[in-house]
Design a protein that fits this description.
Largest sheet: 15 strands, mixed
Structural class: alpha+beta
Helix content: 10-25%
Radius of gyration: 33 Å
Length: 585
């Protein structure tokens, strides 16, 4: 037993995501590449078997000798061989949430494109998910057997050129493109037909490998994609370790169910091992657990994950998304391995010129993520009705720094700083439009169900308000009466002491109400200027008793009509302040 453990630990596991549009031949390609199929592999779902379409993340693997460039990187041989774990992600638009779940554990992306159809909607979406989650990519042009032999080479070259053009503005520009036929004759053809160019693809994959960052330290986080029972043994959870490590006899938590279990045994592709670490694909056996309770989800070190009712994220719009990103709108939020609806509130740094600590910069960051300005509860932020896009010459990805509050419809369990993707998955799946709307990182989570009362008041997001009224008359040199600033039913007590500005330049303070109709009294500390008094005396004359002074008042009338004195009240209000206080700088 110990021998097999030792020999097995010398295998480097490298996760390759197989993504692409529905029917591009991803599963056939994975099947032709694989030697050992893992439990979740090749569509256990009956609906999928009937339609020949992958509905869940399939996993399978094949092992090759360790390439030389991996041996030399440390000057010594760390591993004996290289295992490719193929993560076959579904291509249906409606199952984009499954893809995002799979993409978080991928070291290399294999984008499968139907050579006849080229790039389709979901191919583009897969490309976007790859950009957000994966450092390298190989493009596989599949189904070359469908091209007439005499035109095959020119068609492949033409499609390769088109793909390089599509990729030139992404992180995958100049990535390798290879043409294959994973299942000549299509899914129904007998298996006697040999796949074309698959050995060349394996050599290309070997060239593209690197030593992924694998760290056994820190809390365990394992993404579980399948759960089943074995009589007399217990329940096996298969999945990929996203961070940390595990070993036999460790206690792990299933946070969604709030239960802890002890690990009885561990397997990697049907071989027993004593433990496993980040990046490994494992089966973990526990006892007295009903597999029906957990088909997909996460397993972790007890107490290390939080269940959140709301969260604060950094946010970047995805350039291909055509809709607007509005505050109060609902989006499908994929976070950790869950997708849940959430209401979104966007906010950013205060506009230039607003009173702010000098350390705040309003320059758009040069790179989309991570953000240059860390989020902090000490800072003030400006409420936005929608996400703000860079204006003018600024290149895509240089939008001003922004954040969002997500309020989930049901609680989600996830690690902090994990990737967050917002989508509009209710868009018509046949519409040729990108449904991925924004991406970001989870910065702060609210674990309290009553977060709106307990936590949100700490969040200093404000709106600026401006009210305008008219000056009605002068009482004396230091007191005027105003109107039309408030409704009759407004509680004027809230506004006492606030500063106002007259259109003639003076500033004053609201002293209180005047009568019952919403009028109010303003104290002008410096006193009214002679010009203002002149202007206002003509107004009051006009409103006098008529008679002999009527003529004089009428002479002044055009002047007062063209220049009524207005009153301006500017203040800000914090969106989450329970007392709805008005603040003036």
């Amino acid at each position: 037993m110990s021998e097999s453990v030792d020999s097995w630990t010398k295998t480097l596991n490298f996760n390759v995501g197989v993504l692409g549009h529905v029917d591009s031949g991803k599963t056939s390609l994975a099947r032709s590449l694989s030697s050992t199929a893992s439990t979740a592999a090749f569509d256990k779902n009956p609906q999928s078997r009937e339609r020949g379409i992958t509905l869940d993340l399939g996993f399978s693997s094949f092992t090759v000798e360790l390439p030389d460039h991996l041996r030399d990187s440390e000057g010594q041989k760390q591993y004996d061989n290289l295992q490719f774990t193929l993560v076959d992600c579904p291509g249906h638009a409606s199952l984009i949430r499954t893809i995002i779940g799979g993409a978080q554990i991928i070291d290399l992306m294999m984008l499968v494109v139907d050579v006849v159809k080229g790039v389709q909607t979901q191919t583009a979406e897969c490309l976007l998910i790859g950009e957000l989650t994966c450092p390298r990519m190989v493009v596989v042009l599949n189904k070359i057997d469908l091209l007439p032999p005499n035109k095959r080479q020119s068609a492949i070259e033409k499609m390769t050129k088109r793909l390089h053009k599509t990729l030139e503005n992404t992180r995958f520009k100049e990535c390798p493109v290879i043409a294959v036929a994973a299942k000549p004759g299509g899914p129904e053809a007998p298996d006697t037909e040999e796949p074309q160019a698959v050995p060349e693809l394996i050599e290309l994959l070997k060239k593209q490998t690197y030593l992924p960052q694998r760290d056994p330290k820190g809390d365990l986080l394992m993404a579980v994609d399948h759960c089943f029972s074995i009589r007399g043994q217990g329940t096996v959870m298969t999945g990929t370790i996203l961070q940390g490590s595990l070993a036999i006899n460790d206690t792990v938590e299933i946070p969604a169910l709030k239960v802890t279990k002890k690990i009885k045994s561990v397997q990697m592709f049907r071989r027993p091992v004593s433990g496993a670490m980040q990046g490994d694909r494992v089966g973990v056996c526990v006892t007295q657990f009903d597999p029906k309770l957990l088909e997909r989800g996460v397993v972790c070190t007890p107490g290390s994950l939080c269940t959140l009712y709301a969260a604060l994220i950094s946010v970047r719009k995805i350039g291909y998304f055509k809709g607007s990103l509005s505050t109060r709108a609902k989006f499908h939020i994929t976070v950790g391995h869950e997708t849940v609806m959430a209401r979104v509130t966007f906010f950013g740094l205060p506009p230039l010129g607003a009173s702010e600590p000098p350390s705040v910069t309003n320059q758009p960051p040069s790179k989309p993520c991570p953000l240059d300005t860390p989020f902090t509860f000490e800072r003030e932020y400006f409420h936005q009705d929608e996400y703000v896009i860079a204006q003018g010459e600024a290149s895509p990805g240089c939008d001003p720094e922004q954040w969002a509050l997500l309020e989930f419809e049901r609680p989600v369990t996830c690690p902090l700083l994990c990737l967050v993707i917002g989508s509009k998955l209710d868009t018509d799946i046949h519409a040729n439009a990108c449904r991925l709307a924004f991406q970001g990182r989870l910065l702060q989570g609210f674990k309290d169900k009553g977060y709106a009362e307990s936590a949100l008041p700490r969040l200093r997001i404000y709106k600026t308000k401006h009210k305008e009224g008219q000056l009605e008359r002068v009482t004396d040199d230091y007191t005027v009466i105003g109107r039309n600033l408030f409704k009759k039913e407004t509680n004027l007590q809230l506004f006492i002491g606030l500063k106002v500005t007259l259109s003639t330049g003076e500033t004053g303070v609201i002293e209180g109400g005047f009568g019952q109709s919403g009028k109010f009294k303003i104290r002008v500390q410096e006193g009214l200027s002679p010009e203002t008094k002149q202007l206002l005396s003509s107004t009051s004359k006009k409103k006098g008793k008529g008679g002999s002074k009527g003529g004089a008042a009428n002479e002044e009338e055009p002047k007062t009509d063209s220049q009524p004195v207005s009153i301006h009240l500017h203040f800000k209000r914090y969106v989450f302040d329970p007392h709805k206080k008005m603040v003036q700088s």
